[in-house]
Design goal:
The protein is α+β, with helices and mostly antiparallel strands. The protein has three domains: 249 residues, HUPs (Rossmann fold, 3-Layer(aba) Sandwich); 116 residues, no CATH class; 122 residues, no CATH class. Helix content is 35%, strand content 18%. A hairpin with a 4-residue loop joins strand 14 and strand 15. The C terminus is likely disordered.
Length: 517
């Protein structure tokens, strides 16, 4: 573990200006309101950036009678990771900051390790925020990180959203992630740590630079931090880009300003597209009524306002549908814009009626597109269900299984599991599907593949409930289909609650704030 101290050579913070309490308060202001006695969480790796953010946020919370909780994610990828997390905890304790460590367990991917680790980190932080009931989570991405991100996305020919860089605010399932330091350079954050005065429960950064003529200086202070060796490993694209930018040709604040405005305008337009043309049903199926995919339009010839594949209107549709695919497919990221545009072009040419992308099926009908989960991309192995706990399935649905404690109740209350409806034998009987459509009318309009990917609750391989249906309703359907239902009598008192709960919202553009350094 490489610990960097405040006594390091001065060039480590060359040109840096410490961020004081007033400056940090101004950085937090665009994310308001936070409510009275705000409770915040901050992600801390131990690096200079996150250590500075934690200390600044601790004072910000203290000034408002709030509370800050820090979280470190141990990815289990380096031998020093656990020791570093313990060091972070000890350091933050001197400032009265509560600290929690979460560990990324299970097998690790052999490729795209940084991307997968980042996704796992956000998932663990989001889950912890949900457990603690904390809405606001701070992360320490700064101006230099933004410059590297934009440069890499330009090299990959990203569209206007990608090239505008990271948004200062994004929403996860349980919290919103805030990046207040995007206008701040890494040198300023290192200078902030070097200017830390005192310790205990009232840390602070000097509110003004010392007067050079007076000879005053900070004789005792400064906060150490950890240097992650991966930050210097040229095997990673970000490290190579960082070195390239350090040699010259970096972006200026004016560049970020222009890109931020472009992104805000684009996000507004995409939000309008989603509001007008997309409907998400409780069974996890999206309907897109974009007028330029209807067969009537194609047969009648092009309309005057029919957008070309490279037009802003086509881009808006591609971005919007990309986020629908991310939500329905349960993915961490939307597919590439060009991949979505290719599918839309095929639909416009009437050369395809179904296409698979991002773990979903895009199913073109007469005047709309249905988007639903792709069966071949799902894990069909039974997922065990424990009573009185929320079970998350396929990163899309949640199930809560409850029943009252009744003296003398009989029957085995174990052996519950969730599988896709398509693996259930009765589903493949026409009489079953007909009876189901009579019980749930919208089923009659759903393609069989869209129904096959719905979750089915089993008890010892016997079907109990499908995607929110009450047990008695499924009993009626099974009876109509000639299936045995006697075993259901044991479970009349069970309360089954299904909820379509995708890992990310359909669109957060209306709530984003893009920092303007």
């Amino acid at each position: 573990m490489a610990i960097m101290t405040h006594s390091q050579p001065d060039h480590a913070a060359s040109g840096g200006v410490p961020v004081d309490a007033a400056s940090f308060s101004a950085l937090m202001a665009p994310f308001a309101p936070f409510g009275e006695n705000p409770r915040l969480m901050v992600a801390v790796s131990g690096g200079a950036d996150s250590m500075a953010l934690a200390i600044l946020a601790a004072r910000w919370c203290a000034d408002r009678n709030g509370k800050l909780i820090a979280v470190t994610v141990d990815h289990g990828l380096r031998a020093d990771a656990a020791t570093e997390a313990q060091w972070v905890s000890q350091q933050l304790a001197t400032y009265g900051i509560e600290h929690i460590t979460r560990r990324w367990t299970g097998p690790k991917p052999g490729a795209a390790i940084q991307q997968e680790a980042r996704a796992a980190r956000y998932c663990l932080i989001d889950d912890l925020a949900g457990e603690l009931g904390i809405l606001h989570v701070l992360v320490a991405h700064h101006f230099n990180d933004q410059a590297e991100t934009v440069a890499m996305r330009r090299d990959h020919n990203s569209g206007p959203l990608g090239q505008a860089g990271m948004s200062a605010q994004r929403y996860l399932r349980h919290c919103r992630v805030l990046r207040p330091l995007l206008p701040v350079t890494s040198n300023d954050l290192r200078a902030t740590l070097q200017a830390i005065v005192g310790g205990g429960n009232t840390p602070f950064v000097a509110d003004a630079a010392p007067d050079a003529n007076s000879g005053s200086h900070i004789a005792h202070g400064g906060q150490d931090w950890i240097e992650d060796p991966s930050n210097h490993n040229p095997a990673f694209e970000r490290v190579r880009m960082r070195r390239k930018l350090q040699s010259g040709g970096g972006l200026l604040p004016a560049d970020f300003s222009a890109m931020a405005h472009q992104r805000q305008n684009m996000e507004q337009a995409i939000g309008g597209f989603l509001a007008r043309h997309v409907f998400i049903a409780t069974d996890g199926v999206a309907t897109v009524t974009w007028p330029f995919v209807g067969s009537g339009d194609i047969k009648a010839g092009r309309h005057a306002d029919d957008p070309d594949i490279g037009s802003p209107a086509f881009d808006r549709a591609a971005y919007g549908i990309g986020h629908v695919l991310r939500m329905i497919g349960g993915g961490n990221y939307a597919p590439a814009r060009d991949s979505v545009r290719h599918v839309l072009q095929l639909f416009r040419q009437n050369s395809a009626t179904r296409h698979s992308l991002a773990g979903c099926v895009l199913h073109r009908r007469e005047n709309h597109i249905l988007i639903y989960r792709e069966a071949g991309r799902m894990d069909i192995a039974p997922q065990p269900v424990l009573p009185r706990q929320v079970t998350r399935w396929d990163n899309r649905f949640e199930l809560c299984l409850e029943w009252p404690q009744k003296p003398g109740a009989s029957g085995d209350m174990t052996g519950f599991a969730i599988v896709p409806l398509g693996v259930c034998d009765p589903f493949h009987k026409r009489v079953f599907r007909k009876a189901m459509a009579q019980t749930v009318p919208f089923w009659a309009s759903r393609p069989r593949p869209a129904l096959a990917v719905l979750p089915l609750l089993l008890w010892q391989d016997q079907p109990l409930s499908v995607a929110g249906l009450e047990i008695y309703a499924l009993s009626d359907v099974l009876s109509a289909a000639g299936c045995p239902t006697g075993y259901l009598d044991l479970f009349r008192a069970i309360k089954v609650t299904w909820r379509f709960a995708p890992s990310a919202p359909l669109w957060e553009g209306g709530f984003k704030f893009v920092a303007n350094p």
